[in-house]
Write a structure and sequence with these properties.
This protein is about 30% helix and about 20% strand. By secondary structure, the chain is of the alpha/beta class. It folds into three domains: about 80 residues, MurE/MurF, N-terminal domain (Udp-n-acetylmuramoylalanyl-d-glutamate--2,6- Diaminopimelate Ligase, Chain: A, domain 1, 3-Layer(aba) Sandwich); about 210 residues, Mur-like, catalytic domain (UDP-N-acetylmuramoyl-L-alanine:D-glutamate ligase); about 140 residues, Mur ligase, C-terminal domain (Protein-Tyrosine Phosphatase, Chain A, Alpha-Beta Complex). Strands 9-10-8-11-12-13-14-15-16 form a nine-stranded mixed β-sheet, sandwiched between helices. Helix 7 links the parallel strand 11 and strand 12. Helix 3 crosses helix 5 and helix 4 crosses helix 9. It is globular and about 70 Å long.
Length: about 475
């Protein structure tokens, strides 16, 4: 018989709450969203930025929640509820206490991932690779913030062999409490790049914020850094200051412990050969992006560090697919006949990930058509926004992109930088953008979409691709909450 995630008594003890009604003997799931709560789960009524989970208790109960975790100060208004209640001082703090107990009781080897680019991709690749080696628990979707990390950790089964957590941030000081909760054996920083630059003075301050992840690394643990990142030495210094004694590197530089030896681009895929701490491994990638190979170097290094079987994990990665909006390719039938190749890079954007996606487009041969880029604003770049958008002109031209469609007010400097050098249009909204694209494309074209999530290009991709793709919506976020995913 499968052990429950939590017994009612264990949940009571861990949260420090008090019961109203009879606690269920076991709880097999935790939720903070009334739209996705499953029968028998405990629903934590967290207060978000815009909504309060206490306003959705009736919906959670109707969905079958077996236990409602509520705030003491809200109790007088909850007299009509018939579900058992667990009353706590503060619901989010109770969830954090539960997460701390989950980590304390776990025997899993724990990996934490942060960085400006590639967090979710690296986390998902690690989930896939380690699943071939044992029982794995990993953060859902991009659950990487002040509610997502505690929820992911509180969901950690006691039986897991490995656990992988994504930790994100928008401001200094946000990673510190989360990494101290997770206590990773391995902490990966994928890359330092100008994401959320509007909240920081410069890239060094971003690096310092990412380096907070080292403060939670357990004794004897390892920091894994990108050898090709100019900020790797700075991060290594921060790791040592935090007490991390073992530092490893991944990348193409000769000093990397986990090094890319060969990268062979094929039509829609690639072959890579890597040397992982003295062992050579080969992987077939179902994505042609060289940046993905970089992420997998960190993945293979982490696999080695947690003691999983490297050959088994490498074999598993050969059938791994990237998530929605992170480079998936679709052939779309056109009304006039023929097909259009769509490269869906629509999940978020910053300057580093934009350049990587443009390079993928440049490495893709159109089948008798043109290379077309559909780009939107990169958000949260602060006073550097205009220059960073305009700077994308050279990579686009170098990649042989013949037509560029832009939307969003911050992308207008790129319009000016490309004027007279490429076919370029700026459209004020998604509706006019969609019409302009459909009017312009012809069979054999390859079109890449990339922008920050707030621009909504993913909706346009979904409209174009339609039922030809398999949606991957992931778990719902709590009302009023936000997450920070890959760019």
């Amino acid at each position: 018989m499968t052990e429950p995630l939590w017994t009612g008594e264990a949940l009571l003890a861990a949260t420090g709450g008090r019961p109203v009604g009879t606690l269920p003997p076991s709880v097999n799931g935790l939720s903070i969203d009334s739209r996705s709560v499953a029968p028998g789960e405990a629903f934590f009524a967290i207060k978000g930025d815009r909504f309060d989970g206490h306003d959705f208790l009736t919906a959670a109960a109707a969905a079958g929640a077996g236990l409602l975790v509520v705030s003491e100060r809200k109790l007088p208004a909850l007299q009509r509820l018939t579900r058992p209640l667990l009353v706590v001082d503060d619901v989010l703090k109770a969830l954090e206490r539960l997460a701390a107990v989950a980590r304390m009781r776990s025997r899993a080897k724990v990996v934490a991932v942060t960085g400006s680019v590639g967090k979710t991709t690296t986390k998902e690749a690690l989930r896939h690779a380690l699943s071939a080696c044992g029982e794995v628990h990993a953060s859902a979707a991009s659950f990487n913030n002040h509610w997502g990390v505690p929820l992911s950790l509180a969901r950690l089964p006691e039986t897991a062999d490995y656990a992988v957590f994504e930790i994100g941030m928008n401001h200094p000081g946000e990673i510190r409490p989360l990494t101290r909760l997770v206590q990773p054996h391995v902490a990966i920083v994928t890359l330092i790049a100008p994401a959320h630059l509007g909240h920081f003075r410069d890239l060094e301050e971003i690096a310092d914020a990412k380096a907070e992840i080292f403060e939670g690394v357990v004794a004897g643990g390892t920091a894994v850094l990108n050898a090709d990142d100019p900020y790797a030495p700075h991060l290594a210094d921060r790791a040592r200051e935090a007490g991390v004694t073992r530092i490893a590197h991944f990348g193409e530089a000769g000093m990397a412990d986990y090094r890319l030896i060969r990268f062979q681009k094929l039509d829609d895929s690639a072959n890579m050969e890597a040397r992982i701490d003295g062992t050579n491994v080969d992987i077939r990638l179902f994505n042609a992006g060289r940046h993905l190979a970089q992420n997998l170097l960190a993945v293979l290094g982490a696999v080695d560090l947690v003691g999983a079987d490297l050959a088994t994990a490498a074999d598993a990665l050969s059938d791994w697919r990237v998530g929605k909006g992170r480079g998936a390719r679709h052939d779309v039938s056109l009304p006039q006949g023929g097909t259009l190749r769509v490269i869906d890079e629509s999940y978020n954007a910053n300057p580093a990930s934009m350049r990587a996606a443009i390079a993928v487009l440049g490495g893709t041969e159109p089948r008798g058509g043109r290379r077309i880029a559909v780009l939107g604003d990169m958000l949260e770049l602060g006073e550097d926004s205009a220059a960073l958008h305009a700077a994308l002109a050279e990579p686009l031209l170098a990649a042989g992109v013949e037509a560029v469609f832009l939307t969003g007010p911050q992308s207008r400097p790129l319009l000016d930088a490309l004027a007279g050098r490429a076919e370029v249009q700026w459209l004020p909204d998604l509706a006019t953008l969609r019409k302009a694209i459909l009017d312009a494309v012809r069979p054999g074209d390859v079109v890449m979409f990339k922008a920050s999530n707030g621009i909504g290009l993913s909706r346009l991709v979904d409209e174009l691709v339609g039922p030809q793709q398999s949606p991957n919506h992931g778990p719902a976020a709590p009302h009023g909450a936000t997450v920070s995913g890959d760019a």
